[in-house]
Amino acid sequence: MHKLLVEGGRPLRGQVRVSGAKNSAVALLPAAILAETPVTIEGLPDISDVGILSDLLEEIGGSVRKDGRTVHIDPSEMVDMPLPNGKVKKLRASYYFMGAMLGRFNKAVIGLPGGCHLGPRPIDQHIKGFEALGAKVTNEQGAIYLRARELKGARIYLDVVSVGATINIMLAAVRAKGKTVIENAAKEPEIIDVATLLTSMGAKIKGAGTDVIRIEGVDTLKGCLHTIIPDRIEAGTYTIMAAAQGEEMIIDNVIPQHLESLLAKLREMGVTIEENDEQLYVKPGKDLRSVDIKTLVYPGFPTDLQQPFTSLLTQTQGTGVVTDTIYQARFKHVDELRRMNASIKVEGGSAIVTGPAKLQGAKVKATDLRAGAALVIAGLMADGVTEITGVDHIERGYENITNKLIDLGAKVWYEEMSDEEIEQFQNS
Ligand SMILES: CC(=O)N[C@H]1[C@@H](OP(=O)(O)OP(=O)(O)OC[C@H]2O[C@@H](n3ccc(=O)[nH]c3=O)[C@H](O)[C@@H]2O)O[C@H](CO)[C@@H](O)[C@@H]1O
Ligand SMILES: C=C(OP(=O)(O)O)C(=O)O
């Protein structure tokens, strides 16, 4: 087991290239189950979530061949193998095996998913959708059993706007008989990306990216070639780093429109940002002003950038209120930032951040993926060395973060943890 060390105080400059989107990748891979001939996906990020999903595709009989960041998946020999335990529990997105296997085989057995602990993360809307399409769904000892004689299109109104439920219902519905309408659907760019792949496979989908998605079921889907979109959350994380500790930075391979809510807030704080076709040029001003943020569904401020943004607010002038309306308990990073001398109070679903605080390097724990990113940003701004444990969370979502940071001028490195440190980490 290793820890990540960050020596603070060095300015970041230069260019960083954003990888393919984690939250697309984790849906595109299971979507390949629905095809009958090989699917090729280009630009997948090299992160652990992608590795685990590729292994799961092989467990059900698929052949997965990696060629750099391109992955070729041959789904022709896949079978309806139950996956009640094991790797499905290591990540959130294994729930997409439910929709995809149900769509292909009319049955699936999938263990309840893992992923970041951000408070309750129910999947009732996914299940409501599968049931509406004609599946019988039961929870038996922590695994979801789904069975259908035949899936039939239905009108499904989501009670909560959910990325996962929208994509999962799309996956199950593309091969169902007749028409499905998903109302109050989520509008995140990753949903459009998955719909684009499915459409290239022969699916008939209209309205992805709006809150009403219409799907006309087809009998078969074929393989295709798809290029993934860039990761707006990774791009946003580096943009926040540039505001926090950058001199001048270029974030490359970005769709700027995907980040408008973040860019608007950064400009309000005094950061200069220029948008080009696929790049952002970021130059922080002196004495940035604090702002309030409230996370919302897309195109609102993304909850996945709330934690990194909180680290930036520790350095701005005044008080900023961070309210997470998606995950009211997504504040585990706050205790760790306090160890580094940040001045933050959590009240209800909000963190109140008073800046500027002089951050100091400390031993901290990444409790989840974006908490890890928040600690890296804090470490870059702090005096001295910050030691971050729980690095496997960070590796779920950030490709090659150390090399990308080193190229920008940061001093970051991994060290093996001692037995004593591992024990302390496991007990904390
Ligand atoms: C793999 C992936 O894409 N993960 C993202 C996805 O997670 P995920 O798909 O799990 O998040 P959802 O969009 O489903 O969740 C949004 C809200 O709806 C609630 N809810 C969701 C489903 C459900 O059946 N019932 C229910 O009540 C959740 O508890 C949460 O409060 O979107 C989140 C919100 O943008 C992001 O933080 C995650 O990075
Ligand atoms: C919460 C996240 O991921 P997951 O849904 O995969 O746990 C995230 O990407 O910030």
TrEMBL record:
The modification 2-(S-cysteinyl)pyruvic acid O-phosphothioketal is found at C116. PANTHER family: UDP-N-ACETYLGLUCOSAMINE 1-CARBOXYVINYLTRANSFERASE, UDP-N-ACETYLGLUCOSAMINE 1-CARBOXYVINYLTRANSFERASE 2. One of its GO terms (molecular function) is UDP-N-acetylglucosamine 1-carboxyvinyltransferase activity. It comes from Halobacillus aidingensis. Keywords: Cell cycle, Cell division, Cell shape, Cell wall biogenesis/degradation, Cytoplasm, Peptidoglycan synthesis, Pyruvate, Transferase. This is UDP-N-acetylglucosamine 1-carboxyvinyltransferase. One of its GO terms (cellular component) is cytoplasm. Phosphoenolpyruvate binds at K22, N23. It comes from the Bacteria. Residues 6-405 form the Enolpyruvate transferase domain. Cell wall formation. Adds enolpyruvyl to UDP-N-acetylglucosamine. It is found in: Cytoplasm. InterPro entries: Enolpyruvate_Tfrase_dom, Enolpyruvate_Tfrase_sf, MurA_subfamily, RNA3'P_cycl/enolpyr_Trfase_a/b, UDP_GlcNAc_COvinyl_MurA. UDP-N-acetyl-alpha-D-glucosamine binds at R92, R121, P122, I123, D124, Q125, D304, I326. The gene is murA.
